[in-house]
Automatic annotation (TrEMBL):
Residues 126-251 form the Methanogenesis regulatory protein FilR1 middle domain. Pfam families: FilR1_middle. InterPro entries: FilR1_middle_dom, Tscrpt_reg_HTH_AF0396-typ3, WH_DNA-bd_sf. This is Methanogenesis regulatory protein FilR1 middle domain-containing protein.
Amino acid sequence: MGVSIIELVCRSEKRKNLLVYLKDGPRNLAAIKKALDVTSTGVLPQIKLLKDNDILVQKDDEYELSIFGNIVVQKILPIFKLTNTLEKNPEYWFSRDISALPMQFMERLGYLGDSEVIEPDINSLFDPPQELIDHLLVSQHVIAITSYFHPYYAKHFIGLAKKGVEINLIFTNDVYERIAEDYGEDAEVFFGLDNTNVYIHEGDLPVVSMVCADGFFLLSLLNKKGIYDHNKLISTSEEAVSWGHDLFEYCYLESQKKE
């Protein structure tokens, strides 16, 4: 093997994209060129290099990962995804405090690569993103984690629950008591509905807030100064929604259901 594996796989964007594409199965040259938007002269030298180093094999007119190549891609793919996440929104990620996130979720930040940062202007600082409102209105299942009180979320979740939407929430005890105090009878109705489950987390939650609706994900984190600056990350990717559901499950296991 003429070059190191890391150099071979990571130092060329074309090779990286080719390997990620081929992880789903064999492809011919025409499919590769179309999917990666490359020319024959641009991709054939990369294919040859990967074949020469036993990362790819050719069977008839199709190229696929070798057994060794498949192992390499499976191990390095999380790094590709993480790099993509950080490079897409560097100002956001390098200004966030992620120290409270459990390690398994830090390691899977690559799942959040296909996300958009929402930075509200001064006139809408306390308003939830319109994208969240739109998705909540058409969702049948909503889960959320929140460590702070937001009057919109409380009011809207109560309205959704009364319409029959299945809602599962994890609060700190302070947030729960604030909702119970401020919303009185509405809160009692909300907490008593069969389609609503509320869980109290006694310790510090790893995020400011996280919401997953049907096909939608929202995340809020403190910045490195320990301040909530209202910047939010949103996504409609399956991987981001999966990350959110797994984080909810993690916090759920450390919470007590409010009866």
